[in-house]
Write a structure and sequence with these properties.
alpha/beta, 6-stranded mixed beta sheet, 8 helices, globular
Length: 198
């Protein structure tokens, strides 16, 4: 049986050296991902912002703080029972949306991560991730919180944390989506132990 840790480290090492698109020339760090790569739940955002590019870790700014708060409310933490990655691993300039050719050049890294992690649930954070992984015309404001099954994986799209910071009126809907996620974990999760802060 292949050694998971060795395969994961090889994948990460190869990704760090990637120059497949123009984003490589302006990055500080490749943002491969963070969390437990043996988790059953994978969160996918669109791409790193400025803070993430500087630190080399996804969701570390104000949006990341909100995400951590929402995760904690349903017993999840990035250290223990989820993994977080992005569609593109390098920051698009001025935090613009990653272009289709940039997504295409980078999506193989995410596919390899999914292949190794073998998640039961994928949560798409925001429109870009949901359109890429769930369906091309996904509308977050209408379809957030709905689970669909693709290739044996349950997928849900929800609001990007940065969007919730821009539009706080959507926060209750965002928290409802995480409650639905908790229900789905309780329904199908075999190894996920939900742990709540004291």
């Amino acid at each position: 049986m292949p050694d998971f840790s060795a395969e994961w480290e090889q994948l990460q090492s190869r990704c760090q050296d990637c120059t497949a698109c123009g984003l490589a020339s302006t990055r500080h760090h490749v943002v491969f991902g963070t969390g437990n790569p043996e988790a059953e739940i994978l969160f996918v955002g669109e791409g790193p912002g400025e803070n993430e590019d500087l630190k080399g870790e996804p969701f570390v700014g104000r949006g990341g703080q909100l995400l951590d708060k929402m995760l904690a409310a349903v017993g999840l933490t990035r250290e223990r029972n989820i993994y977080i990655a992005n569609i593109v691993k390098c920051r698009p300039p001025q935090n613009r949306d990653p272009l289709p050719d940039e997504q295409e050049a980078c999506i193989g890294w995410l596919r390899s991560q999914v292949s190794l992690i073998r998640p039961k649930i994928i949560v798409c954070l925001g429109r870009i991730a949901a359109c890429r992984l769930i369906r091309g015309d996904f509308k977050v404001t209408r379809q957030h919180g709905e689970f669909v099954e693709k290739n044996g994986i349950w997928m849900m799209g929800t609001f990007h944390p940065a969007a919730l910071l821009r539009n706080p009126a959507q926060k209750p809907d965002g928290f409802d989506d995480f409650r639905r996620l908790r229900e789905k974990i309780e329904e199908i999760g075999e190894r996920t132990e939900l742990v709540y802060p004291d």
